[in-house]
Each structure stands twice: as C-alpha cells, then as structure tokens.
C-alpha cells in the first residue's frame, strides 16, 4: 500500500515512512498511535504522538491507518485517567489492543512507561534520595534478588515474564 507519510509527506510503503523523517519515524516503526473512546452512539478518536508528547483529535482515516490502536469505553478511559490507573486497563475485557508485529515494541514501551508513572518511579531523581538509599540498604536481599533476575534475563535471553518461573524452578 502506497501513501504519503503524515510527518514528512514522502511516499510511504505500509504504515510508516521509508526514510528517517523529522519525527524520527523509521520503516516499520511508527511512533503515532490512536485511541478510540466509545460512548453510546458516538466515538471520539485521538492520535497520540509519543515522540512529540502530544495528543490531538484525529479523523477516522488517521485512526484506521495507525498500526497501533487502543479502543475502550469512554467511561473506562475517564476513570483510568482520573485514578492514575491507566496501566490496569489492559486486563479489562472491554478494551481492544490492536497492533502490528512491528509496533508491539512500541506498545510494550508505552505500557511500561505508564507502569513507571503509576508506581511513582518517574522521574528518577525522586527515587535517588538519601532516604531511598537508606531504605534500599535495609532491603539488600531484594536488591541481590533483582540483580540475579536481571542476570538470568540477559545471560539466557529470557523474556521478562518468564524469568520468574525459571528462577523459581532453579533456586527453590
């Protein structure tokens, strides 16, 4: 499918620009996703540009052309944003996550960013205080355990979700 890239207006093959344009989009890797909120008879759609950090209203054509889409009821989106629990929406049966194979890395990064924000990990300078270092010093066994899990993940190239099972089987 041939069309024009939304960022640089060059001819794109598939869903993203074939060359590096000003937004940093590469072939097979789009940084613009879509969110659709369903409310009765009316659907609102937005485009989320993760690179620029912007959310803007979108047309249905832009939404359907996006290779990463999230569809959910408007009330669920409103509650998730109000209660700062957006990362928990993934378990709902009323939410649809639509992504191509190339955009799965972006989706996982997006969900990890939401998790970090929800668990108050970001910004990092809040967690690198004297108080936090004293707390982690008392929990040194946990720090070693996390280090061991990271070592298993990196040395054996195991997915993050499977590393716990491997560690439990090996060290119990």
Largest sheet: 5 strands, mixed
- Percentage of residues in helical conformation: 25-40%
Strand order of the largest sheet: 6-5-4-7-8
Looking at the overall shape, the CATH architecture of the largest domain is 2-Layer Sandwich
Radius of gyration: 20 Å
Classified in CATH, the superfamily of the largest domain is SCP2 sterol-binding domain
Poorly predicted segments:
13-29
Terminal residue distance = 53 Å
Number of helices: 6
Write down the CATH topology of the largest domain. Answer: Nonspecific Lipid-transfer Protein, Chain A
Taken from the alpha-carbon principal axes, the silhouette is elongated
Characterise this structure.
The protein is an alpha+beta fold. The chain folds into 3 domains: 1-28, no CATH class; 31-118, Nonspecific Lipid-transfer Protein, Chain A (2-Layer Sandwich), CATH 3.30.1050.10; 129-171. The chain is 38% helix and 22% strand. The protein contains 6 helices and 8 strands, in the order E-E-E-E-E-E-H-E-H-E-H-H-H-H. The strands form 2 sheets. A 5-stranded mixed β-sheet has the order 6-5-4-7-8. Strand 5 (42-49) and strand 6 (54-57) form a beta hairpin. Residues 13-29 have low confidence and may be disordered.
What characteristics describe this protein?
172 residues, alpha+beta, Nonspecific Lipid-transfer Protein, Chain A, five-stranded mixed sheet, three-stranded antiparallel sheet
Question: SSE layout and pairings?
Answer:
Blueprint lengths: L1 E3 L6 E3 L2 E2 L14 E8 L2 E8 L4 E4 L2 H6 L2 E6 H9 L13 E4 L4 H15 L11 H9 L1 H17 L6 H9 L1
Parallel strand pairs: 4-7
Antiparallel strand pairs: 1-2, 2-3, 4-5, 5-6, 7-8
């Amino acid at each position: 499918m041939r069309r024009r890239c939304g960022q640089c207006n060059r001819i794109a093959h598939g869903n993203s620009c074939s060359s590096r344009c000003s937004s940093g989009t590469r072939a097979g890797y789009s940084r613009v996703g879509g969110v659709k909120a369903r409310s009765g008879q009316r659907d609102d759609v937005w485009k989320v540009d993760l690179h620029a950090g912007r959310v803007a209203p979108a047309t249905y054509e832009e939404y359907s052309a996006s290779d990463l889409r999230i569809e959910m009821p408007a009330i669920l989106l409103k509650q998730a944003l109000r209660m700062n629990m957006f990362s928990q929406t993934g378990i709902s049966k009323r939410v649809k996550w639509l992504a191509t194979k190339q955009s799965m890395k972006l989706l996982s990064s997006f969900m990890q960013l939401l998790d970090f924000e929800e668990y108050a990990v970001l910004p990092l300078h809040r967690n690198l205080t004297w108080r936090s270092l004293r707390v982690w010093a008392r929990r040194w066994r946990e720090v070693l355990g996390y280090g061991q899990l990271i070592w298993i993940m990196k040395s054996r190239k195991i997915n993050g979700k499977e590393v716990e099972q491997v560690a439990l089987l090996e060290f119990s």
